[in-house]
Design brief:
It is a single chain. The protein has 11 helices and 12 strands. It is an alpha/beta fold. The protein has 2 domains: 134 residues, D-Maltodextrin-Binding Protein, domain 2; 98 residues, D-Maltodextrin-Binding Protein, domain 2 (3-Layer(aba) Sandwich), CATH 3.40.190.10. Strands 5, 8, 9, 10 and 12 form a 5-stranded mixed β-sheet that branches. The chain has a 3-stranded antiparallel β-sheet with strand order 3-11-4, with helices on both faces. Strands 1-2 form a two-stranded parallel ribbon. Helix 7 links the parallel strand 6 and strand 7. The longest helix is centred in the C-terminal third of the chain and has 16 residues. It comes from Chitinimonas taiwanensis DSM 18899. This is Extracellular solute-binding protein, family 3. Keywords: Signal.
Amino acid sequence: MRLWLIALFALCCLWPAQAKTIVYQRHQAKEDPQLRYVTAVLELAIRESGVAYSPRISALVMVQSRGLDELRRNTGLIDLTWTMTSAQREREVLPIRIPIDRGLIGWRVALLKQHRLADFARIDSLQALKRYRAGQMHDWPDTPILRSNGLKVDTSDQYESLFKMLAAGRFDYFPRSLIEVREEWLAHAEMGLAVEPTLLIRYPAALYFFVSKQNRQLAADLERGLNKAVREGKLQALFEQHFGSLLKELNVSGRRVIELRNPLLPPQTPLQRPELWYRPGE
């Protein structure tokens, strides 16, 4: 009997642990421009963490605020989302403070109607930009950031409606991050929109993974995996693989830059770690 128990114990130790499921948020976009890259980052973080997790997308489509509320209430509907950080969001849910976008969520170029290109080619200051109306989602941190800098913003509670509103002339431009704009432009090619080629609107921001405050082990595992990926250059390599040619194509270093303040940026943002942030020409 004793030998049988020893053999059974040894077998259990050798049997691989069943992977824990991570359910991540399904966003509103028909073709989510961040999804391929962010899921690749999540899979990299899992591999580097050394813990067996199996990620899958949620069945239910949610706006950002709904996903964050599910995590805040720890309902179990989702385990993880990714979104721009803010002080309020970090009070309510648990951030993993590695900017998976390397800060580019705050580097914005304008989607606009073709006939507006000449107008925006003449913009050379924040004051000049204030003449035009931007469009954003009602629950995105970008909305109060833009407004706090004196910019006019119209909002919608439906992501796809913003493209229709832009095409219909309800507002003048839709500021989109460098990691989103090309996919969004291609997905709405029939609307006659253009990517403005001369201007960059920039504010300090970070795209993080967020989990429930009751799921600290998941946060610790993913943070460990991401930090290991950064130390070994794997996150930077994945970023370059997805966005290197795009950033050259968008001529980031050749654009006129309008710098904005971000009053929502938490003081814990790891700005002192240069290896986490994108720098043109690196």
